[in-house]
Amino acid sequence: MSNAPFPTIHPPTRILMGPGPSVMEPSVLNAMGRPTLGHLDPAFLQIMDELRVMLRLAFRTDNELTMPMSGTGSAGMETVLVNLIEPGDRVLVGICGVFGQRMAEVALRAGAEVVKVEGEWGRALDPDALRKAGAGGSFKALCVVHGETSTGVLQPMEEMRGIADELGALLIMDCVTSLAGVPVEIDKWGVDAAYSGTQKCLSCPPGLSPITFSARAQEVLAKRKTKVASWYLDLTLIGSYWGQERVYHHTAPINGLYGLHEAVRVALEEGLETRWARHRAVSQHLYEGLTEMGLDLRVPAPERLAPLTAVAVPAGADDALVRGALLQNFDLEIGGGLGPMKGNTWRIGLMGAGATRAHVELCLAGLRSALA
Amino acid sequence: MSNAPFPTIHPPTRILMGPGPSVMEPSVLNAMGRPTLGHLDPAFLQIMDELRVMLRLAFRTDNELTMPMSGTGSAGMETVLVNLIEPGDRVLVGICGVFGQRMAEVALRAGAEVVKVEGEWGRALDPDALRKAGAGGSFKALCVVHGETSTGVLQPMEEMRGIADELGALLIMDCVTSLAGVPVEIDKWGVDAAYSGTQKCLSCPPGLSPITFSARAQEVLAKRKTKVASWYLDLTLIGSYWGQERVYHHTAPINGLYGLHEAVRVALEEGLETRWARHRAVSQHLYEGLTEMGLDLRVPAPERLAPLTAVAVPAGADDALVRGALLQNFDLEIGGGLGPMKGNTWRIGLMGAGATRAHVELCLAGLRSALA
């Protein structure tokens, strides 16, 4: 007779085609089950060092300060903002979805004076709107979302460095849903600080957030006049553990880091360019299939984020009923909409291990059945 | 030919007898490898609900607001402090080790005026010292570490509620290393807010932090005049996801939560009283064995924390060499000292699945060999 009120879990096997978590890489789940090491074990320190090298390759950067934070993508966002912003700093935030809104909120809580530039949900931001809002002003940071998970929009980044320079600002980028799925070029684009997640195009369970800081961002961090408000996310402390000093800060999430090591390894093994091309190709199949079914895509073709497609719920269909039928009959998860897109939009993810032709066909078949 | 610069990891199997991570429960590692669910999947919501019920049993509380935070024990500490403290609040912190110091530092960053009561490292705090330091004053919170991981001291908690009442304060407790290893009685002791970790007596990989808030603490949270500085750890937001509203906040660390579900389940299945008795019994064997070897225990018998034993590095022995030999020859990890105990103290963990007679004997044999 057991004293525990519940039995061991046996979660069903779902096909995850929502906004994340995505279809997991099997070897990542295997890696997470390997024997736990101490956080100062030489064998673990080697895994950390390898992971940092691989994250630099994935981010396409030489930034020394590149490492995973011990929290989800939102913790990565907070890390970047609370480490770079001091109370009273002016910050320009581009907003056309939930994650731009979140950056503004987190920056506000860090004490920033936030200037918001709001664009239409389902469209990329107009760089000129950013220029105009910032004109003549001086800003600590310009914050942009590269892949807006709430709308399926890819923000072109090429002009952003120039705009940041006009503002005298650091360039901060959210690449939670873009990293390892579409080109992310930290150094080429002149991004000063970026954060990502594990559960999107890396096909690794959620719980960690890779971040990277340029030398300029590191300098801003080093010259802070006030302490970082969050002790847990304070990079001046955590950097000493991930750097060569190995000073104990908090106990690293060992097995989660095994998983991330394997996930980044698998992405690099495929080759980033090959991986980007695969995401692009399968998303095209999805666009064609959805269009053939008479469904409307929410985002104009040039602004689409390949790993995540927003599609309008057709007239007469019930959002929740359709998603419920997909889950019940096909073990297939797609995402609903957020904010103004709640109830009228589905979000279909083709991320990492889930970005395959077979998943496209399965999703189309499921939708055809549920909408019939 | 691979584009990845490193092969898949194959971490060695270590016997973890340091201050944590501890020897893992095999079924916990298995659970973490189960298929990832979406964070709003009904099957996952059920796992969350079960986990909350089981955490209440483990904490011995009826507190509604009981749940795991998506970060390690230090994130749990920060959660409790940033949610309950507002700038200018006075906080009394008892300090006789690293984790008391950390509470003071985190409270300071949350804007508190911190009054420190410092005691000897390796001893419990004298309740009268707390009374004296707080006498006549009014405080928002009294902060105490139940199991001080840096020194292996167990702080008696019975008098703390009375002292907190004299101060008009919430009682906040760190039970990272005590939960599921020695009696933790949130409701009986009148604790208002507590946090723990997964990688100690629960034998689950690090990465999550169970917390619990009393009705009184929840009321303080609800009546805040300022926003919580950390968006990621803001319980007014996260509570809406873990509660019945299911409002999306951040993507929960699904597979880590599978592991915690299994870990708490296993602890309850054994029965908390049985588990406490097991930790007490095996620690006695360790004390006897160390004493027979002529080694000095750092903490007087009545104040010892059964899951973690501090022992003096004997004259003539080199701390790092001995620990290196244990790791190399026995795959056995024990911990070094921190702060004033660095270089002169070892910390030996007997936690969760590692709290067995066999582990005691193995550690004693290793030490005999390394010190010979």
Give an overview of the whole structure.
Two copies of one chain form a homodimer. In chain A, helix 12 crosses helix 13. The mean pLDDT of chain A is 97. Chain A folds into two domains: 107 residues, Aspartate Aminotransferase, domain 1 (Alpha-Beta Complex), CATH 3.90.1150; 243 residues, Aspartate Aminotransferase, domain 2 (3-Layer(aba) Sandwich), CATH 3.40.640.10. Chain A is 40% helix and 14% strand. In chain A, the strands form four sheets. A seven-stranded mixed sheet of chain A has the order 2-10-9-8-5-3-4, with helices on both faces. In chain A, strands 1-12 form a two-stranded parallel ribbon. In chain A, strands 6-7 form a two-stranded antiparallel sheet. By secondary structure, chain A is of the alpha/beta class. In chain A, strand 6 and strand 7 form a beta hairpin. The first copy, chain A, contains 13 helices and 13 strands. At the A-B interface, helix 1, helix 2, helix 3, helix 4 and helix 10 of A face helix 1, helix 2, helix 3, helix 4 and helix 9 of B.
The total count of helices of chain A amounts to 13
DSSP helix fraction of chain A: 40-55%
Oligomer: homodimer
Radius of gyration of chain A: 21 Å
Q: What shape does the CA trace of chain A take?
A: globular
Mean pLDDT of chain A: 97
Strand-residue proportion of chain A: 5-15%
Class derived from helix and strand content of chain A:
alpha/beta
CATH topology grouping of the largest domain in chain A: Aspartate Aminotransferase, domain 2
For the largest beta-sheet of chain A, the strand count, sense and barrel status come to: 7 strands, mixed
**Level-2 CATH architecture of the largest domain in chain A:** 3-Layer(aba) Sandwich
